[in-house]
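User: I'm preparing a small set of examples for a lab meeting where we compare how different chains pack in three dimensions. I only have the primary sequence for this one, and I'd like the structure in token form so I can line it up with the others. Please keep the answer compact; I'll paste it straight into my notes.
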Amino acid sequence: MLKNNRFNLYIAILILTSFFMEQGACFAALSQKTIEIAREVINNPTQGNVSLYVKAMLKEYKKAYKENNLEEASDDLRSALYFLKDKPNSTEYNDTLSKLNSINEQMGVDLSDENRLEIAKNLYLENKIFASAYEFSVLLKEGYETDVCYEYMGNIAQKLNMQDTAFALYKKAVEENPENINAKYKYANFLLQKGEITDAILYFEDVVENTNSKPVIDDIIKTFTQRLNNNPDDENNYGILGLAYQKLGQYDKTYKLLKKSLIINPKDIFLRYYLGNLLFNIHEYSFADEIYTEILEENPYESQIRISRAKAYIQLNQVDKAIKDYQIVLAMYPESLQAQYGMYSLLKNKYSLDEIVKLFYPIDSDYKLKDEDFNSLGYFANKIGATKDAIVFFQKALLMNPKSETPYIELYKIYQLLGQNDKAKEIIQKGYKALPKNGEINQMYSALNSDKINEKYDIALSYLNSGEFEKAIAVYNQIEPKNTEVYQAIGNCYRQLGDFKNAISNYKKSIELSPDDSDAYYALGVAYLESNNQTKAKDAFKLSVQKDSKNLKSKKMLSYIEQKEVGKTLDIAYDYFEKKNYAQALKYLNSASETFPNDPKVFFYRGLTKEATGDIEGAVSDFKTTVKIDRNYFIAYYKLGENLEKIHKEKEALYMYEKFLGAENIDEALAKIAQQRVIELGEKYY
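Assistant: Understood. Below is the structure token output for the 686-residue chain.
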């Protein structure tokens, strides 16, 4: 029992140390003093504490650089620069930046914005949060992917327990890019914690509707299930849970939840609307119609519900009723693109475009759509994938106003998307003739005389940048022959869509063409990691580093995976240790010592386990290995002293106790024991 209690004490010390490292920056072989200074910066970020931290990190840099650990040295400099960046004209800032640039040059680090973003993300994964924050701050200054940078800075603020700052940063990320679902989800969680339920629910609804991430949906289900258990009378919990299960296609659960919610609040419009949508999704159109109709009888101005009812009428072949609902919506909201397009898609095989438009506003026969209205309809149709209809609308806009740039540009892009190169060429030539001074049209016209592949690249990239990944894939697939960059681009698009199977397939094709491309293996590794295949991810990152030892992104991802693997192994070993199954604990720790020969925690834990089995010589050997790997692993010095005494090496034990007591901020209980042993052994040997 005594040994177990002591083991728990050592575990607690390790966890505490890890906590401070996470809260400051998780550096390999950080001194205890530096960890403490990092904690002080977080808890009390005065100018004095910041200065101490910067000095400590510059000292750590010198140590790492002397040992030729350039990667660690560069991360130490980044951590210092995060606090020096507010004084860009100071000598200290310029000297530190110069050292970082010099190391980056020695390592051959790619410092393009795209690569820098990956490095910043990987630093965050390694818990080197000040170093990560520095890179994100540089990217923010450059204006690159600002929403992603604000999102990660919010993550960092959370790690530092700066909740208000994190909330503000997530809000900023959402403002920068309302399509950033990850940031929106984190912002929604904060709104929920702050009790701003109405706004939180709106954001959660948006996240559920637009996310492709099953883990996010699962997490939402977990959050709202817990809330439901704590407060079964809050209908919001039932509503969000219902939407989440509906997203997963679990309609039976959705139905039960929405029914329970409506028992609590039978007048809630949105809950009834969700129920109607559920019935529509499971093809119960008559019942959906009944729900929508009940709501509209009480709330006749709810346009979205009326549009939903029109769609139900279409499925029931009640075309006249659908048209009437669309007309009512347009009478209230003349610019409703959903209603306009709904009527067009319903009647396009029966009437001409002009005849259909006349039916939009039967009460006002003089009302006509302008060219910009048809452009808006074109954008709407193209966004939902109705490209043929989009062509009709843009052509109409062009007919009405041949001097409008929009239809030329959009038709050109659509024709390229469809692989209709002759039509693309024809429309942009007309555009150039009509608007020879328009910069974008000029650029597209010039591309006609260049390589066709470059032309496709530009169009695909425009879709990629606007988040229209399916369209980008369609254009990339038209490029023949495909090279490694094209396959990687297609893989990146599939990754964004959450389709990891196709992403991995395309990354492998990229590697087949360029088997020595380190970045291709990196992309493959990330896809495997995101699809929860950690083993294959690790293999891919290893190959990436083998192909290019200077690929910092892959090296950092390998470090991240190994940290996770070590933690998992130690957790398993600790469970066996607690159950006094030392043989099994040693089995995992022996395996870990071969896989992670440079991780001091593995040898320290194995030393504790060997001590518990009575293998004192083995324990001493492992504790010595621990401090050989990390001379600042001070708890191991205490254990060395304790075990060396057991094998009658008291003079050496005295030295180890003294080493332990030379550290700062050590455990008080162990310090008292060590001090007593130093006194007693000192009397004997001094």
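A couple of notes for your slides: The chain has a mean pLDDT of 86. The chain is about 80% helix and 0% strand.

User: Perfect, thanks.
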